[in-house]
Specification:
The chain has 273 residues and is an alpha/beta fold. The chain folds into two domains: 8-99 and 214-269, Rossmann fold, CATH 3.40.50.1860; 103-211, Rossmann fold, CATH 3.40.50.1860. The chain is built from eleven helices and ten strands. Strands 4-3-1-2-9-10 form a six-stranded parallel sheet, sandwiched between helices. A four-stranded parallel sheet has the order 6-5-7-8, with helices on both faces. The two termini are 29 Å apart. Bound molecules: D-glutamic acid (DGL).
């Protein structure tokens, strides 16, 4: 069946997945995208796995049934860690791409081999993350920082809380810089955190490299679609503006799209989920 004209579904607990959607649109400019922010049930990062699994499956089902998506991008490290296995079992014919903290690229580019990792508590405690880190034990020393409250502050665009949380968490990780015992690389292991980039940069200094996962996810999405012959035809006009939904209040997502991405957007509320 020709699926090339169908949309790519993308979801996150809230506005964070926009950092992945931005990378997807850059990599796949001819595609249609449908984005769901699960704002009525966010944040995911301080909730138990059952909550995140139930929400992820409900959103995936709605995207499959209402929008006939040809692939699903889980634009949330927390949902990937907690729910991707269940999603793959529930939707066996749907190609699914997840995101995880980019430890491997961070380790290969770090000179000091000391790497800070900011992520949600649920991500850092997950078996998936622990397995990934164990596989890289000889590649560098990872300093893990659960960032309670930071995604929520970014969700609400609460500048005071964002600055305070970033200051506390970067201080807790230790010294940043390019000297032998300093952290020279910082993994943004939650898709909300790229939107605190400027605040983090001011706090850790210019020499520190930030690593995030949006671009690799976009490349992997292209690969899965290309293998199946499902890419939207190249040379066609650019894809339409993404269709955006929020399960709760749509205002945060609407404001975030305009503030960070400068796209024309009209966010709709997805009530039935
Ligand atoms: N954006 C999500 C992530 O990548 C989680 C934010 C949250 O809901 O706690 O982990």
């Amino acid at each position: 069946m020709d699926r090339s004209g169908d949309a790519i579904g993308v979801f996150d607990s809230g506005v964070g997945g926009l950092s992945v959607l931005r990378a997807l649109r850059a990599e796949l400019p001819h595609e249609k995208f449908v984005y769901v922010a699960d704002s009525a049930h966010a944040p995911y990062g301080e909730r138990d796995d059952t909550h995140v699994i139930l929400r992820s499956v409900a959103i995936a089902r709605s995207l499959v049934e209402q929008h006939q998506i040809k692939t699903l991008v889980v634009a949330c490290n927390t949902a990937t860690a907690a729910a991707i296995k269940q999603l793959r079992q529930s939707f066996v014919d749907l190609p699914i791409v997840g995101i995880e903290p980019a430890l491997k690229p961070a380790a290969s580019q770090s000179q000091t081999k000391r790497i800070g990792v900011m992520a949600t508590r649920t991500t850092l405690n997950s078996e998936k993350f622990r397995t990934l880190m164990a596989s890289l034990h000889d590649q560098g020393r990872f300093v893990l920082q659960p960032c309670d409250g930071l995604a929520d502050a970014i969700e609400r665009d609460d500048a005071t809380k964002i600055i305070a949380a970033c200051a506390d968490y970067t201080r807790a990780m230790g010294r940043f810089g390019s000297e032998a015992d300093e952290l020279d690389t910082l993994v943004l292991g939650c898709t909300h955190y790229p939107f605190a980039h400027a605040v983090l940069r001011a706090q850790v200094g210019d020499s520190v490299a930030f690593v995030e996962g949006g671009a690799p996810v976009a490349r992997q999405t292209r690969k899965l679609l290309a293998e199946r012959g499902w890419l939207a035809p190249a040379g066609a006009a650019a894809g339409p503006d993404p269709v955006l939904y929020a399960t709760g209040n749509a205002d945060n997502l609407q404001a975030a799209v305009q503030r960070w991405l400068q796209w024309p957007a009209s966010v709709q509320t997805l009530g039935m989920l």
